[in-house]
Structure formats: structure tokens, C-alpha cells
Write a structure and sequence with these properties.
The complex is a heterodimer of chains A (532) and B (400).
Chain A (H helix, E strand, L loop, with lengths): L1 H12 L5 H7 L3 H29 L10 H36 L7 H9 L1 H16 L17 H4 L2 H30 L12 H32 L13 H35 L6 H15 L14 H13 L1 H15 L8 H23 L5 H4 L3 H31 L5 H28 L13 H29 L38
Helix pairs in contact in A: 3-4, 3-5, 3-18, 4-6, 4-8, 4-10, 4-16, 5-8, 6-8, 8-9, 9-10, 9-11, 10-11, 10-13, 10-14, 10-16, 11-13, 13-14, 14-16, 14-17, 16-17, 16-18, 17-18
Chain B lengths: L3 H4 L4 H9 L14 H34 L17 H21 L1 H12 L7 E8 L2 E6 L4 E5 L5 H5 L16 E4 L4 E7 L4 E5 L4 E5 L5 E5 L5 E7 L11 E7 L1 H20 L5 H20 L23 H9 L3 E2 L2 E2 L4 H10 L15 H12 L12 H8 L2
Parallel strand pairs in B: 1-5, 4-10
Antiparallel strand pairs in B: 1-2, 2-3, 5-8, 6-7, 6-9, 9-10, 11-12
Classes of the chains: A mainly alpha (532), B alpha+beta (400).
Chain lengths: 532, 400
């Protein structure tokens, strides 16, 4: 008797749809995680294509490869696509795939919300990029061309592309808020017995902080975008001084979102690093509590320093001093993270598989990005760096050198777990070295360009900047080409080539996800694990 | 200028060499010539040294670990996860305390001084100038001297189209530079007529946003005579790259002479009343090339969807925000920008079209300029109205 009842329950829990329908209707956290990651990878390639167009335009002065309008559109789409289309979805994909596995939960807490959250993304991407495609066929006057910061009043007077971008932001915001709420609920409610908060894997902690930040700051951007839409079409004057509004208000709203956004991109990959380094050092993570408290400190500080992006906008002295000193304070918790990472590999037994290489590359490159950020905090010196190529180099070291290197490390680290197949190690190493060389050639030269006085976002430039721009462009082509190796490695493993991966995948890997087979079954944790 | 052949080998090493070949330390800013720029350079140099040391220490630890603790050397991994002894606690706290010391003492104190001195725009200011940004040129006013003029990019189109420009001041040259005296504190007020621009001259260490509807301020005190060049530093639309700033710093005597000359020629320009049609067309073409061609194109064809054509019989599709006002003024019928009434034409050039990139030119162009450019537009690009607009007509239209 009882056997029949068990059978019934068993059958229901293991219903596993096949084919296209599985991917369109899935509420399974692993499937949705994979969808997020594939979406992010696609957008990463698109954003990379835009980057290559930028560098092709800047390869020599007086180049007419792109017209100034198209150039402005390309730089804007590059920024928006990379931040909202590539990095956020990929890290959200990691969250969806890994968090339930890491905390011993059968799925995310709100699976249907999860499905909805993902399916808002493709329309958002289409809305954002479609005007660019249409313009190629001579329809309309192209996408948003205001820079990813969409400063008013330029964005008030822009073409319909700005409206498309505003709607994309609404969709992306709704998607991010849904994902964040889901993650918070999952972490609070679905932990396995014994998995106390201070036993959570650091990746899970990092995403908890990311979710809090998203819920705190994304509404500011959505509200600002709604005001912008009203200014453009409904006769309001939020951002028009002639009607009693304030153009700088947009900057405050944008950066109240935009500065924490940096840490929204950074946190999940800082978490990833704290899994990879102990694995390949065969040594437990150093300073777990210190890292958790640093996450809290960074998250709290990140929402009170936004106006350091606006030192040239004409702030009163008190404002300049406050934002300068509070920004410098962030260097402390970040330094603690670096300290813990270095102490984790100290006296370990290190091996250098591809994920470890990318993790070490992260420490080096993000270190440069962080250090240069410290001087950008200086309100007066910032006048020299702000909106110059120095700034461009700084935030690429911080955002490519950090989050993107971290995401790539994470992909190589968990790809065998997800696909059940090992990637090609020699190709992975080649990918790492080409990325490091290409990246440094591209962006180190931009530090010098900025110091020499080249403004960012210009399609043509003075002759004194010519040679360094050529170097930067050549580096960018190498960097872009190198990423195709990643695509090949992912497709190869997903298609079932390569050595089969064991459950533990890596000799030193720890964590609940490595107690499961590779790939994990469609439904995990039939029996809830108990954490000692 | 490095030849393309030399730079094909794009390596990091070559990058450093080519940087050095510019006869200037590639880590340093353009030679500073104001007190603010010198303070900034000091902080920059200090910081680069500190950052270099911190990076070397951090990277040194990393490199040591990577080399020394390889598994290949048979190391047994340790198991520590936190400092254990008082000494270790002290060694862990040391980097943090050092960082705080660097943040708030080594860098914090000079930064505090610099912020206060940058904000001190009024004390001892001998001269006040007003800088107005508009898409895409700078307008300079000397309120006490009664001088005002517009400064436009003067790099020729031939250079811009050449694919390999040769002029060393390519994109950094203007028709009328801002002229300032050396050795005197100049208070600079900034505003904008349309979007946010930023006035940046690297060797002055100054970058200040020009915000529409608000006055911002900064100051310079230039050490030595010379020509200093910069650019707009806030994305302000399609002409963002074509908004250079050139400042000619003169000795105080030369500056006084320049002021007298500028006042005299301003009086002369204001006195002009009637011009021949030929003169108007000639001057109008110049004005059009400088002020209108970036949007409406040298051909008068405009850019589809964004900037209307001036040429006759060319259809134009744009959102109602852009076309409604034109239609009210009889300039837009069935998608064609018709040859509307001349009074309205003057008003559009004077006041602009709100909500579109068409700026108001009443502050930037004098009566003769506007009269000439309208005469030119109404008799070129296939338009044959035969209208001749005189400066006096424009002068009368300004009040309306």
C-alpha cells in the first residue's frame, strides 16, 4: 500500500519535459540558470562586437568607419549591453544554478517568478538593440546615443531610441527585482538543516548582498527613467531648468543606482573567487567572517558615495569633502577581501588549472582597478581624470579585470559540474594568457591616453593621441578574438565532448554541489542533506 | 607622430617606448601652469608612487605564493583560517592601518587643501569671464569689458576627411581663442544653453561642467604666456569631438591691448546696417559652414530623421515634437520643409526649437550673421525665394 503512494509522489516529482518545451516553460532552477548564462554569453559577444567597432573607429585619427551619430550609439549600446545584458544575467545564472545546490534546497523558493524574471530579459534586449538593427535597414534614426549614463537634458532631446532604452530599463529592472526577491527568500527559507547563516558558502553570501543592493537601488533608476519619459512626452520638467527642474537631479538618481551597480557586478564574482582559491590551494578559505563583514561594509558604503561620479558637476565644498572621504573608506573592506584572498593561497599546495589562473588574474587586474579608483576619489585630482581615458581604463580594470575575469573563472570552474564534461585545459590556458596580454595592451595604454588629456566618448581625436590609440585598438582585437576560445570550450563541453567529470570535479573542491553527480540530476536533493 | 609602420608591433613594451617618445613623462599630466594643476600633479605623482609600492607588495606576495607554494614542490597545505597569535593579529591589522593612514593623512590632507583652494573662486579675482557651452561651440563673455564672441572649431573639412590629418593642432584649433591675462586670478563662470558640457583644459587642471539653467564657477591663474588647448569633456551629442577650447594667455600689457582692439571691432560690427546681396551671400555661406553644416550638412540635405534638410523638395520624417512647431510656422507641409515665411525663419534661428537639438542663436550670432545666413539659406540648395534679409530686420525681430 504505502509503496504505491511513494511511487505516485516519486513519479510526479520527476516529471521531466523534453525538447524545446522544456526550455520555454521550465521552472527548474538549473534550466533557468543555464538560460540566463546562455543569454549572458550571447550578449557578451554582442557587447564585445560593439567594443570592437569602437576600437576600429579609434584606430587612427580622421577615421570615417563610423559616423559620429553611429559612434555615439555604439558606445552607448556597448555599455548598456555589457552591464545589463551580459554581466548581470550571467551572475544571476550562477545564482540560479548554484544557490539551491549550495544550500541544499530542491529548487528556488519561487520557481514561477523565476521563469517570468528570465523571460523578461530577451524582450528587454530586443527593445534595446532593435533600433540599431532597424537603422541598418534604413528604418528610424537608431538606438539611444547618450552614453550609458543617459544624462539629461541630452536624453530629453534624443530620438525615439531613448524611449526604447527606457522601456528596456523598466523590463530589466522588473527582472532584476524578481530575481533578487527570489534569491533572498530562497536563502532565508530553504537552507538545509544545519546550514546556519554563518555557514553559507561565500558565493551565497555575496549574492544575498547583491540582492539587497538591487532591491535598494534599482527603483531609483526606474523612477528616474519614468521621470525622463514624462519629460520627453508628457510636458513635465523634472530635468529642465527652464521649467523649474534640475538637470543634475538625473545624475543623482542615476548614480544612486549606478555606483552600487558596480558592487552588484562585483560581489558575485568576489564570492566565486572565494570558492576557486581554496579549491586549488587545497586549503580552507581564510577569514570567512572577515569577508562576510566586508561584504556588509561594502554594500552599506556603496549606497552613500554615489556623488563621487559628479565631482565636476559643481558640488558645494562640504559635499565634495564628504563624498571624497567616504569613497576612500571603501578601500578598507576591499583591502580586507584582497588580504583574505592572498592569505588563502599562502602556504597552500597550489595547482594552476584554468579557473585558478583566471582567479589570480582577477586579483592582479582588479587590484590595479581598485588602486586607481582610490585616486579618483580625490575630488580635485578627479577633475583631471573624470571623463578622460584614464577613467575608461580604470573602470575596465575594475569591471573586466574583476567581474568578467571572475565570471570566466566561474564558468571554467563549474562547467564540468554543469555539463558533466571537462573543457580543454590547453585551450583554457591559451584563453587566459591571450586575455591577459590583450587586456593589458588595450587598457594600460588608455591610462596614458587619459593622463595625456584625451576625453572619452569622442569619435575622432588629436594627433598626439594617435600611437597609443593604435596600440589600444590592436590589443582590443586580440582580446576580442581570445574570447572565441571560451565560446568554443563551452560549446565543446555542452555538446558532450571532453573527458567525463567526476562528482567532485576538482581534487580540492568542497561544498554541497560537489556531492552531486556531474551533471546533477534534473531534480536534486530527494533527501534533504544535513550540514554538520 | 609615430608612423603606422613603427606601431604595427603592438606590444606593451613598445607602448612604453612610444609614450616616452612624446618627450614627456607618460605618467604625468600635460605641463601644469596654474596652482590647481600643480596641486593635482603633486597628488597624482604622490599617489602613483604609493600605488606602485602597494601593487608591488601585493603582487610580490602573490608571486611568491605562486612560485613557492606550488604542489609540484611537495608542500603540505596549512589549515589556518584566521590569525592565531597576537603577532599575527598585529600583522593583519597593519595593512589596514597603513591604508587608513594613506587615505586620510598622506592623501587626505593635500586633498582637503586642494578642495578648499579650488572652491575659492572670488577672493582677489581680477577678471570675471563667462563661458557658455552650446551644441557644439563655446561662447565667451567678458561682462566688465563688454566683449563677447563665439569660438568655433577651425580645423578644415579637408583635414577631417583626409583619413590621415597632418596638422599638429588637428581638432584642437579654433577661429577665436579665449584670451586671458597671465599672473592674474580669473574667475570663470559657466553655463550652457542646451545640454551639459564640460570645460576642460588639462594644463590648467580644471574641468567644470556647464549646466543649463545654472551658474557654475571655477578659477585659473596662469603662470606664463602661451596657447593652451582642451576639449569638451561631457558627451553632448554628435558634435562632442568637435568642441575644442583654446586659451591664449597674454602678458597683462598685451591683454589690455587685446581688450581695446576687441572693443573697437565690436563697435564696428554693431554699426553695420545695410549690406549688398553678394556680401550677405558670401558671409552667409561662411556662417552656414561654421554654425549650421554640422547638423544640416554642407549639402543642406540634413540627416534623415534627426536633422531636417534645408535643400528644397527633400522630404523629412521626424517625431511631432520636432515638426509641430515647424508646421505652426508654415515650415512643414506634407513632409517637406517648405520655404516658410521669412519672419518665422528669423525667429527659428534666433530662438531655436525647444525640445529638439535646434539651439537658439540669439546669443551666439550678431544681427549681420543671422541676416546673412538666412539670406544664404533662402537662395541656395535649390531654394529661390530671392529674399534679402538685412541686419536691421534681425535687430527688430530680436525683441519679438
Amino acid at each position: 500500500m504505502s509503496g504505491a503512494i511513494t511511487d505516485f509522489g516519486h513519479h510526479d516529482a520527476h516529471y521531466e519535459p523534453k525538447g524545446l518545451g522544456r526550455w520555454l516553460t521550465t521552472t527548474n532552477h538549473k534550466d533557468i540558470g543555464i538560460l540566463y548564462m546562455l543569454f549572458g554569453l550571447t550578449m557578451f559577444l554582442l557587447g564585445g562586437l560593439f567594443a570592437e567597432l569602437i576600437r576600429a573607429q579609434l584606430i587612427h585619427p580622421s577615421n570615417h568607419f563610423l559616423t559620429p551619430e553611429v559612434y555615439n550609439q555604439v558606445i552607448t549600446l556597448h555599455g548598456l549591453v555589457m552591464v545589463f545584458g551580459a554581466l548581470m544575467p550571467v551572475t544571476a545564472g550562477f545564482a540560479n544554478y548554484l544557490i539551491p545546490l549550495m544550500i541544499g534546497a530542491p529548487d528556488m523558493a519561487l520557481p514561477r517568478l523565476n521563469n517570468w524574471g528570465f523571460w523578461l530579459l530577451p524582450p528587454a534586449a530586443i527593445v534595446l538593440v532593435l533600433p540599431f538593427i532597424l537603422k541598418l535597414f534604413g528604418i528610424g534614426n537608431g538606438p539611444v546615443d547618450t552614453g550609458w549614463t543617459m544624462y539629461a537634458p541630452l536624453s530629453v532631446q534624443g530620438g525615439p531610441g531613448v524611449d526604447f532604452a527606457i522601456f528596456a530599463i523598466f523590463l530589466l529592472g522588473a527582472s532584476s527585482l524578481m530575481a533578487s526577491i527570489n534569491i533572498v527568500v530562497t536563502i532565508f527559507n530553504l537552507r538545509a538543516p544545519g546550514m546556519t547563516m554563518m555557514k553559507l558558502p561565500l558565493f551565497v553570501w555575496s549574492w544575498l548582498m547583491t540582492s539587497f543592493l538591487l532591491i535598494a537601488v534599482f527603483p531609483a533608476l526606474i523612477a528616474g527613467s519614468a521621470m525622463l519619459l514624462a519629460d520627453r512626452h508628457f510636458g513635465t520638467h523634472f530635468f529642465s531648468a527652464a521649467g523649474g527642474g534640475d538637470p543634475v537631479l538625473w545624475e543623482h538618481l542615476f548614480w544612486f543606482f549606478g555606483h552600487p551597480e558596480v558592487y552588484i557586478l562585483l560581489f558575485p564574482t568576489a564570492g566565486i573567487l572565494s570558492h576557486i582559491l581554496p579549491t586549488f590551494a587545497r586549503k580552507p578559505i581564510y577569514g570567512y567572517k572577515a569577508q562576510v563583514y566586508s561584504y556588509w561594509a561594502i554594500a552599506a558604503l556603496s549606497v552613500v558615495v554615489w556623488a563621487h561620479h559628479m565631482f565636476t558637476s559643481g558640488m558645494p565644498v562640504a559635499g565634495q569633502l564628504y563624498f571624497m572621504y567616504s569613497t576612500m573608506l571603501i578601500s578598507v573592506p576591499l583591502a580586507i577581501l584582497f588580504f583574505c584572498w592572498l592569505a588563502t593561497i599562502w602556504k597552500g599546495s597550489l595547482t594552476f588549472e584554468t579557473p585558478m589562473l583566471f582567479a589570480l588574474g582577477y586579483i592582479v587586474l582588479f587590484g590595479i582597478g581598485g588602486l586607481t579608483g582610490l585616486i579618483l576619489a580625490d575630488a580635485v585630482a578627479d577633475q583631471q581624470y573624470h571623463n578622460s581615458f584614464f577613467l575608461v581604463a580604470h573602470f575596465h580594470y575594475a569591471l573586466f579585470g574583476g567581474p568578467i575575469m571572475g565570471v570566466i573563472a566561474g564558468i571554467y570552474y563549474w562547467l564540468p559540474k554543469i555539463t558533466g564534461r571537462m573543457y580543454s585545459e590547453p585551450l583554457g590556458k591559451l584563453h587566459f594568457w591571450l586575455t591577459m596580454i590583450g587586456f593589458n595592451i588595450t587598457f594600460m595604454s588608455q591610462f596614458f591616453l587619459g593622463v595625456a588629456g584625451m576625453p572619452r566618448r569622442i569619435p575622432d581625436y588629436a594627433l598626439q593621441f594617435a600611437s597609443l590609440n593604435l596600440v589600444s585598438s590592436l590589443g582590443a582585437f586580440l582580446l576580442g578574438a581570445a574570447q572565441l576560445i571560451l565560446v568554443y570550450n563551452v560549446i565543446r563541453a555542452a555538446a558532450g565532448f571532453g573527458k567525463p567529470a567526476t562528482s567532485q570535479v576538482w581534487e580540492g573542491a568542497q561544498g554541497l554541489e560537489f556531492t552531486l553527480p556531474s551533471p546533477p540530476p534534473h531534480h536534486t536533493f530527494d533527501e534533504q542533506p544535513v550540514v554538520a | 607622430m609615430v608612423k603606422p609602420k613603427q606601431v604595427i608591433l603592438g606590444s606593451a613594451a613598445l607602448m612604453l617606448i612610444s609614450g616616452a617618445a612624446q618627450a614627456h613623462n607618460p605618467f604625468e599630466f600635460q605641463t601644469p601652469v596654474t596652482p590647481i594643476a600643480r596641486e593635482t600633479l603633486y597628488v597624482h605623482d604622490l599617489f602613483l608612487t604609493i600605488a606602485g609600492i602597494l601593487f608591488t607588495i601585493g603582487f610580490g606576495f602573490l608571486l611568491f605564493a605562486v612560485i613557492h607554494y606550488r604542489r609540484g614542490r611537495g608542500h603540505t597545505p596549512a589549515t589556518f583560517t584566521a590569525p592565531r597569535t597576537p603577532l599575527q593579529w598585529a600583522l593583519s591589522a597593519l595593512p589596514i592601518l597603513t591604508l587608513m593612514f594613506i587615505d586620510y593623512i598622506v592623501m587626505g590632507i593635500p586633498a582637503y587643501h586642494a578642495v578648499l583652494s579650488l572652491a575659492d573662486t572670488r577672493n582677489d579675482a581680477a577678471l570675471v569671464i563667462k563661458v557658455t557651452g552650446s551644441q557644439w561651440r563655446w561662447h565667451y563673455d567678458y561682462p566688465d569689458q563688454g566683449i563677447s564672441f563665439v569660438s568655433n572649431l577651425s580645423t578644415s573639412e579637408a583635414q577631417r576627411d583626409s583619413g590621415a590629418p597632418t596638422d599638429s593642432n588637428y581638432l584642437l584649433e579654433v577661429d577665436k581663442p579665449l584670451v586671458l591675462p597671465v599672473g592674474e586670478k580669473v574667475r570663470v563662470l559657466l553655463t550652457s544653453t542646451d545640454v551639459i558640457h564640460a570645460w576642460w583644459i588639462p594644463s590648467f587642471g580644471i574641468k567644470q561642467d556647464a549646466v543649463p539653467g545654472f551658474l557654475r564657477e571655477t578659477w585659473v591663474k596662469i603662470d606664463k604666456p602661451g596657447v593652451y588647448r582642451g576639449q569638451c569633456a561631457e558627451l553632448c551629442g554628435v558634435g562632442h569631438a568637435y568642441m575644442p577650447i583654446v586659451v591664449e594667455a597674454k602678458s597683462q600689457d598685451d591683454f589690455k591691448k587685446w581688450v581695446a582692439d576687441a572693443q573697437a571691432s565690436a563697435a564696428q560690427a554693431a554699426a553695420v546696417t545695410t549690406l549688398s546681396k553678394e556680401d550677405l551671400l558670401k558671409h552667409g555661406q561662411q556662417t552656414y559652414t561654421t554654425y549650421c553644416a554640422l547638423c544640416h550638412q554642407p549639402t543642406g540635405l540634413g540627416l534623415p530623421g534627426a536633422f531636417p534638410p534645408i535643400a528644397a523638395g527633400k522630404p523629412f520624417a521626424a517625431p511631432p515634437t520636432m515638426t509641430d512647431l515647424l508646421a505652426q510656422r508654415g515650415f512643414f507641409k506634407n513632409g517637406l520643409i517648405a520655404e516658410g515665411p521669412v519672419d518665422q525663419h528669423i525667429q527659428i534661428v534666433l530662438k531655436g526649437i525647444p525640445g529638439t537639438p535646434m539651439p537658439n542663436f540669439d546669443g551666439q550670432l550678431n544681427d549681420a550673421d543671422i541676416a546673412a545666413v538666412i539670406t544664404f539659406e533662402r537662395n541656395s540648395f535649390g531654394n529661390h525665394t530671392g529674399d534679402v534679409v538685412q541686419p536691421s530686420t534681425v535687430k527688430a525681430a530680436r525683441g519679438k
